[in-house]
Amino acid sequence: MTRLVGAELLKLRTTRTFWGLAGAAAGLVVLIVVLSVALDTSLSEDNVRNVLATAGLGGLLTLVLGAVVGAGEYRHGTIAWTLLVTPNRLRAVGGQVLACGVAGLAIGAAVSALAAAIALPWLAAKGAPMPPSGDLLEILLGSASYAGLAAALGAGLGALLRNQVAAIVIVLVQIFVVDPTLAALIEGFGPFTLTGLGAAISGLEGDGDDLLAPGVAALVWAGYATLFGLLAALSTARRDI
């Protein structure tokens, strides 16, 4: 499995899509961090935490990246070559999901480090009260973890649907339409939506019990990603390529 994941990572590193979405994630987070710090006048510890937690927004783009990669092999017809090398379809899908998770984690770590490098000195110069270093590290690690988990889930969904456009549209509709609707209609369900889980993992401050604990949220998200990966593997095993 290690070699399989390594091969998938090599494929990722040699595609323009990977670097384009990684750059877009970095640009989006930098823009939001700069605007947040520049316009912030309250300078509270919670605001400092939330500014750093905006690095988790990169997870939205790694989710899209995973969906593109998972469905891309079917679009370009390279899935046949992949399965010739790795006939075990469960291993093939699992390797791709894991590779996307690792790539997403790398992107998330880089984006989180960039956000911290910009925000922390600037906020300190403005006299903002800094949370304990342990809390800051937890937020940065959470944002990076969210990016990795998001990419893994996207890869499973993409492999299940086999259509890049459909996978991306479903991801965006889920986050921007379905999640808010379910959270409004079903009491107590908000923390279990993709949006609620992502906010919790990234370390955003919620009101009361609005968000799960970061570790619990990560486990729930990992469960979702595993479910999509298993469904994709079963679907691939039953279909002709």
> Which bin fits the share of residues in helices?
over 70%
Q: What structural class do you assign from the helix and strand content?
A: mainly alpha
The biggest beta sheet reads: none
Tell me the number of helical segments per DSSP (H or I, 4 or more residues long).
10
List the secondary-structure elements in sequence, H or E.
HHHHHHHHHH
Percentage of residues in strands: under 5%
State the separation between the terminal residues, measured CA to CA.
22 Å
- Uncertain runs are none
Radius of gyration: 18 Å
Counting structural domains, the number is: 1
Which whole number gives the mean pLDDT?
84
Question: What's the overall geometry?
Answer: globular
Q: Tell me how many strands there are.
A: 0
3D structure, described in words:
By secondary structure, this protein is mostly helical. The protein has one domain. The chain is 80% helix and 0% strand. It contains ten helices and no strands. α1 crosses α6 and α2 runs antiparallel to α4. The mean pLDDT is 84.
